[in-house]
């Protein structure tokens, strides 16, 4: 069986996931809506997952994919809890603008 | 036997002290006085025994009790040395001490704290004995500081009067200045010779081949400063006149007869050190002569009877130092003894007068006491003649010897000291005339109470007057028992026997004439012309300067007390606050940094995220790109 | 039996005192402090008989820290000082009523525990732990039971706490550095280090900062007077009587032998600093209005002299310093107790409001005077022995040091007598002054007895400390 | 250019484009929908890499569960209005700068590390079938696997607790 990377090249995957990751970072910094921020985080996670899978193929090893499973589990948990927190914040503050969340102030 | 007896000698007054401290109040005034007197008398008897021993066998008795202080290169033990010098001192300290104790029983009878008085007096005798019989400089130092303490306690005996307390404090601190000198001297001697023991020191110096003269002179000078403090020499003499604030018997005992001679004792003790330092000896002689003159001039115009006697004491001590400085230790010792007799007698006599006048000390308010207080008058007269150097009283012999020694060495010193003796004769008889002759100038009420003092007071006076008369016999110019007795102490061959030629007789004559002239002037002024010293406000001109003691107290006050207090205030108000604010300042800086730093933590998640991303970039750059 | 039993007794005692409740606390504390003193005396006998009463026990493997308690003559002397003063201090407070007495007395015992640990520890980190531990109880004692305005007190006490803590941190840094070099915190291993003179200088300075603040030497003394003034009598006694000695002891035990080159090279500077403290403290004391502040500055002067003695690096200097430490411990406790006695009756510490007490209470006046005399080092008091030895050692370095240090004799007499005159003498005070009670008198007599006995016969203590001090001198001279 | 490469390029373009759109859409619902497409394209990548199981799981978890959750939340909060106030311009500028910076840095890192590309090993072993994954997951990664289940359980409980309306007023 031929390694698919022979035709695509690992570097392309690296560039792709780098760009996706940067888009995620950009979203986090750019938007004030907490939901969108969350989505950006998901994009970042997916960028990393993609890289994992690419390298799994590169090394011909299953461990990369196993990690993706775990990261998915964590992401799912995170999203569930995070959104629940957002809901309760929204309930209390009436908005989910992250600039309004300043109670961490020292 | 000797050890036990020496301990008895030492501890008898101490036991008297303890007894009076703990039980004095309950056993009654007279009993406590009697116990105090007996304690000192016991010591006197023990001293007499030792005197007999030492006359029979001139070898000194050395007793060592236990190790006291350990220094790297030597040990100081707590020991006694009973030799000619210490026994001589013991005899007159305990003898006069016993007499004055006896006198005090009557004198202090009205005081509610009489047991305390006797306790202090006993303690003083205890420390004086320690000072005298210690076998090394540090034991001497115990006594040295101890007598200073007792002096402090007794000057401030009437502690409700803050002026008296000031005087007491002044005496203690002035003494301590001297004590520092003594300590420094001890340090130098300790490091030079690795011993503080007199006997060892003497052999060490005698056996040494290359002595460090510079340091020996330094030691001698430091020791001399110590002696200055205790024996009230320039520049540390101002405490002694103030010390007259204490009860009169105390002035007699401590500030005339015994404690103030401690400096002379110490220098005589260490004569072998001082002999090596001729420069210091010269200083001692000059200081002594100048002190005697300055004090005598001040005494000329004082009106307080005790002040006159106090300055007279300073003056006489100056003469003794003059003798010490000229290397005539035995002459100084001789004068110490005769001076102890007549000065104690004078003080006790003035005490008797003050007692009769219920505390009046101003001579301008006395007069005419001759008729009422005959015994006091006669004893006072004898002592005055003695101090003025009129033959055949004891003072004549001792003072004459000093003048003779001075003449041999330096004519100027002789002139100064002769002048001082002339003045002495004048102010003593001024005192005598103003107090005992003419009419009584006090209030009528005082006059009605005038009386001769009781026997307990007059008895010591009589004894002392007899001693003041006969005291000269121990060292006649041609046949000196004292010189022979003291001979083992001195390294130098005992001062060559005076060849009694014309010069000597002429000097003697000059001295006597000087004394008589002084008396004559006083007679002319106060008997013939019937003068009475002016009131304080009316004193003017140079007399005023003398009356105010050359303003030395004021100068000292300005130079030292004021400046040090000013410095203290400056330190307290400025330096301390500056230091404090410096420390607080450090805290404030930290606080400020925290406060500014707080502003970064404004809680905005957006900004935190920026910081986070930039930080991550920085880390990545550092880790992967910086190499 | 070894010295750890003392720590156990004091530690258990602190808990027992706390559990005993407010009423019994003082007596339980006294019992435990006395029993630890008894144990210390038994241990002293064992030590004199040549038995080994030190402890060394591996505590933590990585990093290499041991539970090492070294009992030589020096430590035992300091132990005895601590353990003899603690019961006196506790006893002296019997007539005071304290809120929450159980905590108060427990803290005192706990402090004694920490101080005993400091004097015994021969492992750097253990020593550091005890050193810092002793700060905690005094902080609470001064803060909670102190007197004066609460805000000002808080300010003074917190300043003291942070100041001393900050100084100690430098010591910790020095220890960490030493550990990296030696691979162990044990004193004997640290002695073996061959550090260059630059390293020694830095370590010396780091230690110096910690000790100079604790002792305190000028110009690091600013915490002292205000804390002494604000702390309760017991706290002041603990601070001045024992805790200051921790700093001085540490100089001898740790600073000098670990960094001897620096100590030798800069000897003159440090001696001068000590002597400057003597003069400065004495002069500032002259114009104090508050009795406790005056005593604080007098303490500054005395410890300055002691510190100068230790920095001479001679056996005389060290011996004199240790003797003087013990003597000063007793005297200063006595004097602060005196001020407390006056405070109990007059409710003031301002000297201007006193005066004329002597005619009302002769016993008190006598004891006070004797303490004043001991404080000005009159011969036959223990202080004289110490002061004489220290001054002698200074004279061996340079006679001017002895002269300048000796001014304490004059200035000390001046401010102490001035104080005595202001407080005790003069016209009988209109306010009634009750003479000392039996309990107060007993505590004072104990202190005076110690001072005068050892003043005449200091040999037992000298013999106890000399061998260990000679060891330390050998350590100091190991590199030249 | 092989077919596979073309497919990759298309998928990559879709992923990047939809990711951008998801971020720039003013309406959160649109964002969510764009994101779903993005996730699908990533699943396509997985398929391309021959990990079918992962692709399916990815679609189920992300596109199914997580995105539904997002949509529900958005609707719950009634956020489908374009009412978001933009961040200040400086912040947006900062965001863009940061984006460029991090992009450049990461790519530079990659280039700087001089990777060996072009030589790919082919063992021929089966390493990503469900069977193999299952074996690895339940043998070597047994404990983390169980922990993941605990994590999910905890997250579930936490979510329930958090989103429950508090009964006590004030």
From TrEMBL, chain A:
Its main location: membrane. It comes from the Bacteria. The keyword Transmembrane applies. Keywords: Cell membrane, Membrane, NAD, Oxidoreductase, Quinone, Translocase, Transmembrane, Transmembrane helix, Transport. The chain crosses the membrane at residues 12-30, 36-55, 67-90. It is a multi-pass membrane protein. Pfam families: Oxidored_q2. One of its GO terms (cellular component) is plasma membrane. One of its GO terms (molecular function) is NADH dehydrogenase (quinone) (non-electrogenic) activity. GO terms for biological process: ATP synthesis coupled electron transport. It is found in: Cell membrane; Membrane. It catalyses: a quinone + NADH + 5 H(+)(in) = a quinol + NAD(+) + 4 H(+)(out). NDH-1 is composed of 14 different subunits. Subunits NuoA, H, J, K, L, M, N constitute the membrane sector of the complex. Belongs to the complex I subunit 4L family. This is NADH-quinone oxidoreductase subunit K. It comes from Flavobacterium hiemivividum.
UniProtKB/TrEMBL annotation, chain B:
It holds the Pfam family Proton_antipo_M. It is a multi-pass membrane protein. Residues 68-118 form the NADH-Ubiquinone oxidoreductase (complex I) chain 5 N-terminal domain. The chain crosses the membrane at residues 6-23, 35-56, 87-105, 117-135, 180-201, 213-240, 252-274, 280-301, 308-329, 372-392, 412-434, 455-476, 505-524, 608-625. GO terms for molecular function: NADH dehydrogenase (ubiquinone) activity; NADH dehydrogenase activity. One of its GO terms (cellular component) is membrane. It is found in: Endomembrane system; Membrane. One of its GO terms (biological process) is electron transport coupled proton transport. Keywords: Membrane, Transmembrane, Transmembrane helix. Residues 135-424 form the NADH:quinone oxidoreductase/Mrp antiporter transmembrane domain. This is NADH dehydrogenase subunit L. It comes from Flavobacterium gillisiae. The lineage of its organism: Bacteria, Pseudomonadati, Bacteroidota, Flavobacteriia, Flavobacteriales.
Automatic annotation (TrEMBL), chain C:
Pfam families: Proton_antipo_M (PF00361). Keywords: Membrane, Transmembrane, Transmembrane helix. Its main location: membrane. It is found in: Endomembrane system; Membrane. InterPro entries: NADH_Q_OxRdtase_chainM/4, NADH_UbQ_OxRdtase, ND/Mrp_TM. One of its GO terms (molecular function) is ubiquinone binding. The chain crosses the membrane at residues 6-21, 28-47, 67-91, 103-122, 128-148, 160-180, 200-220, 232-254, 266-287, 294-315, 321-343, 364-385, 397-417, 438-457. It is a multi-pass membrane protein. GO terms for biological process: ATP synthesis coupled electron transport; electron transport coupled proton transport. The keyword Transmembrane applies. One of its GO terms (cellular component) is endomembrane system. Residues 122-406 form the NADH:quinone oxidoreductase/Mrp antiporter transmembrane domain. Belongs to the complex I subunit 4 family. This is NADH dehydrogenase subunit M. It comes from Flavobacterium gillisiae.
TrEMBL record, chain D:
GO terms for molecular function: NADH dehydrogenase (ubiquinone) activity; quinone binding. Its EC number is 7.1.1.-. GO terms for cellular component: plasma membrane. The chain crosses the membrane at residues 6-24, 31-49, 55-78, 90-111, 141-162. Belongs to the complex I subunit 6 family. NDH-1 shuttles electrons from NADH, via FMN and iron-sulfur (Fe-S) centers, to quinones in the respiratory chain. Couples the redox reaction to proton translocation (for every two electrons transferred, four hydrogen ions are translocated across the cytoplasmic membrane), and thus conserves the redox energy in a proton gradient. This is NADH-quinone oxidoreductase subunit J.
């Amino acid at each position: 069986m031929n390694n698919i990377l022979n035709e695509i090249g690992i570097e392309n995957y690296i560039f792709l996931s780098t760009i996706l990751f940067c888009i995620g970072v950009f979203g986090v910094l750019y938007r004030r809506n907490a939901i969108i921020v969350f989505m950006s985080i998901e994009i970042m996670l997916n960028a990393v997952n993609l890289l994992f899978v690419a390298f799994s193929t590169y090394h011909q090893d299953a461990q990369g994919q196993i990690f993706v499973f775990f990261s998915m589990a964590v992401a799912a948990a995170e999203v569930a809890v995070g959104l629940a927190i957002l809901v309760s914040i929204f309930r209390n503050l009436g908005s989910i603008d992250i600039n309004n969340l300043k109670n961490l102030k020292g | 036997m000797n050890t036990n007896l020496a301990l008895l000698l030492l501890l008898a007054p101490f036991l008297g002290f303890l007894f009076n401290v703990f039980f004095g109040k309950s056993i009654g005034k007279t009993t406590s006085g009697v116990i105090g007197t007996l304690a000192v008398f016991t010591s006197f008897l023990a001293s007499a025994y030792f005197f007999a021993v030492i006359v029979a066998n001139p070898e000194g008795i050395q007793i060592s009790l236990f190790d006291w202080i350990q220094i790297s290169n030597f040990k100081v033990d707590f020991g006694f040395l009973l030799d000619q010098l210490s026994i001589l001192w013991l005899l007159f300290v305990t003898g006069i001490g016993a007499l004055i104790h006896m006198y005090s029983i009557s004198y202090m009878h009205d005081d509610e704290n009489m047991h305390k008085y006797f306790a202090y007096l006993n303690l003083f005798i205890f420390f004086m004995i320690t000072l005298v019989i210690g076998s090394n400089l540090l034991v001497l130092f115990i006594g040295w500081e101890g007598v200073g303490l007792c002096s402090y306690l007794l000057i401030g005996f009437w502690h409700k009067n803050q002026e008296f307390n000031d005087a007491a404090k002044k005496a203690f601190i002035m003494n301590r200045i001297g004590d520092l000198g003594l300590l420094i001297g001890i340090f130098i001697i300790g490091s030079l010779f690795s011993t503080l023991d007199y006997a060892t020191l003497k052999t060490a110096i005698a056996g040494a081949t290359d002595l460090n003269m510079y340091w020996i002179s330094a030691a001698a000078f430091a020791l001399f400063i110590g002696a200055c403090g205790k024996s009230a020499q320039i520049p540390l003499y101002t405490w002694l006149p103030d010390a007259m604030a204490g009860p009169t018997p105390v002035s007699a005992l401590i500030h005339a007869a015994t404690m103030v001679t401690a400096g002379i004792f110490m220098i005589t003790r260490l004569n072998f050190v001082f002999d090596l330092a001729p420069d210091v000896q010269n200083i001692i002689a000059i200081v002594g002569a100048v002190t005697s003159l300055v004090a005598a001039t001040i005494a000329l115009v004082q009106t307080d009877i005790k002040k006159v006697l106090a300055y007279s004491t300073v003056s006489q001590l100056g003469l003794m130092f003059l003798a010490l400085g000229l290397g005539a230790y035995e002459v100084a010792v001789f004068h110490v003894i005769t001076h102890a007799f007549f000065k104690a007698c004078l003080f006790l006599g003035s005490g008797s007068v003050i007692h009769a006048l219920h505390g009046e000390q101003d001579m301008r308010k006395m007069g005419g006491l001759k008729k009422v207080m005959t015994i006091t008058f006669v004893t006072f007269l004898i002592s005055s003649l003695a101090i003025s150097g009129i033959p055949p009283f004891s003072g004549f012999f001792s003072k004459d010897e000093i003048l003779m020694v001075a003449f041999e060495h330096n004519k100027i010193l002789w002139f100064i000291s002769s002048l001082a003796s002339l003045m002495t004769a004048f102010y003593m008889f001024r005192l005598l005339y103003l107090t005992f002759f003419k009419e009584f100038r006090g209030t009528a009420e005082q006059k009605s109470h005038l009386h001769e003092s009781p026997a307990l007071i007059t008895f010591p006076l009589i004894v002392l007057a007899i001693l003041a008369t006969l005291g000269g016999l121990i060292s006649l110019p041609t046949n000196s028992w004292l010189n022979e007795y003291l001979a083992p102490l001195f390294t130098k061959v005992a001062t060559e026997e005076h060849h009694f030629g014309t010069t000597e007789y002429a000097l003697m004559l000059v001295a006597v004439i000087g004394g008589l002239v002084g008396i004559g002037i006083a007679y002319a002024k106060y008997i013939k012309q019937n003068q009475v010293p002016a009131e304080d406000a009316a004193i003017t001109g140079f007399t005023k300067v003398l009356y105010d003691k050359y303003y030395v107290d004021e100068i000292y006050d300005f130079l030292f007390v004021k400046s040090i207090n000013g410095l203290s205030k400056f330190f307290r108000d400025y330096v301390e606050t500056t230091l404090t604010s410096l420390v607080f300042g450090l805290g404030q800086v930290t606080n400020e940094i925290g406060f500014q730093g707080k502003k970064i933590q404004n809680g905005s998640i957006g900004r935190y995220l920026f910081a986070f991303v930039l930080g991550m970039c920085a880390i990545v750059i550092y880790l992967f790109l910086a190499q | 039996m070894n010295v750890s039993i003392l720590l156990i007794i004091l530690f258990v005692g602190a808990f027992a005192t706390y559990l005993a409740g407010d009423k019994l606390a003082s007596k339980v504390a006294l019992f435990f402090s006395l029993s630890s003193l008894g144990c210390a005396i038994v241990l002293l006998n064992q030590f004199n008989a040549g038995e080994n009463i030190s402890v060394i026990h591996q505590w933590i493997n990585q990093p290499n820290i041991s539970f090492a308690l070294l009992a030589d003559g020096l430590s035992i002397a300091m132990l005895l000082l601590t353990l003899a003063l603690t019961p006196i201090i506790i006893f002296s407070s019997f007539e005071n009523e304290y809120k929450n007495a159980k905590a108060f007395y427990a803290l005192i015992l706990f402090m004694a525990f920490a101080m005993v640990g400091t004097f015994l520890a021969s492992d750097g980190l253990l020593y550091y732990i005890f050193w810092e531990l002793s700060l905690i109880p005094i902080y609470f004692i001064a803060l909670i039971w102190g007197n004066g305005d609460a805000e000002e007190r808080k300010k003074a006490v917190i300043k003291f706490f942070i100041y001393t803590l900050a100084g100690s941190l430098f010591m910790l840094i020095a220890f960490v550095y030493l550990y990296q070099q030696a691979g162990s915190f044990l004193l004997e291993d640290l002695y073996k280090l061959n550090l260059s003179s630059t390293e020694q200088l830095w370590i010396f300075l780091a230690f110096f900062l910690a000790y100079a603040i604790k002792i305190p030497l000028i110009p690091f003394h600013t915490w002292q007077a205000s804390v002494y003034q604000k702390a309760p009598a017991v706290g002041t006694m603990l601070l001045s009587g024992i805790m200051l000695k921790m700093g001085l002891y540490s100089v001898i035990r740790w600073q000098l032998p670990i960094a001897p080159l620096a100590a030798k090279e800069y000897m003159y500077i440090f001696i001068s600093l000590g002597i400057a403290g003597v003069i400065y403290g004495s002069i500032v004391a002259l114009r104090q209005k508050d009795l406790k502040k005056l005593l604080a500055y007098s303490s500054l002067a005395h410890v300055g002299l002691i510190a100068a003695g230790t920095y001479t690096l001679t056996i005389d200097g060290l011996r004199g310093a240790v003797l003087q430490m013990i003597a000063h411990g007793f005297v200063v406790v006595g004097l602060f107790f005196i001020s407390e006695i006056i405070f109990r009756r007059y409710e003031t510490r301002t000297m201007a409001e006193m005066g004329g007490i002597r005619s009302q209470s002769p016993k008190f006046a006598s004891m006070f005077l004797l303490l004043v005399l001991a404080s000005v080092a009159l011969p036959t008091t223990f202080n004289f022995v110490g002061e004489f030895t220290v001054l002698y050692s200074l004279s061996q370095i340079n006679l001017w040091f002895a002269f300048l240090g000796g001014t304490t004799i004059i200035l000390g007499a001046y401010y102490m007598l001035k104080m005595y005159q202001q407080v005790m003498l003069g016209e009988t005070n209109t306010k009634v002054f009750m003479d000392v009670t039996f309990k107060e008198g007993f505590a004072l007599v104990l202190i005076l007895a110690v001072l005068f006995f050892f003043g005449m016969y200091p040999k037992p203590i000298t013999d106890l400390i000399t061998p260990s001090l000679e060891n330390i001198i050998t350590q100091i001279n190991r590199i030249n | 250019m092989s077919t596979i490469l073309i497919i990759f390029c298309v998928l990559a373009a879709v992923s990047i484009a939809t990711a951008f759109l998801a971020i720039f859409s003013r309406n959160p619902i649109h964002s969510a929908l764009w994101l779903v497409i993005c996730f699908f394209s990533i699943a396509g990548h997985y398929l391309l890499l021959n990990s079918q199981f992962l692709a399916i799981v990815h679609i189920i978890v992300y596109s199914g569960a997580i995105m539904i959750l997002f949509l529900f939340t958005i609707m719950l909060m009634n956020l489908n209005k374009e009412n978001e106030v933009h961040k200040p311009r400086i912040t947006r500028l900062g965001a863009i700068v940061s984006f460029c910076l991090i992009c450049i840095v990461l790519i530079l890192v990659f280039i700087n590390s001089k990777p060996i590309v072009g030589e790919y090993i082919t063992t021929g072993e089966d390493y990503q079938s469900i069977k193999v994954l299952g074996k690895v997951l339940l043998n070597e990664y047994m404990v983390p696997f169980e922990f993941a289940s605990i994590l999910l359980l905890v997250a579930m409980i936490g979510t329930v607790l958090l989103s429950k309306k508090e009964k006590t007023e004030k």
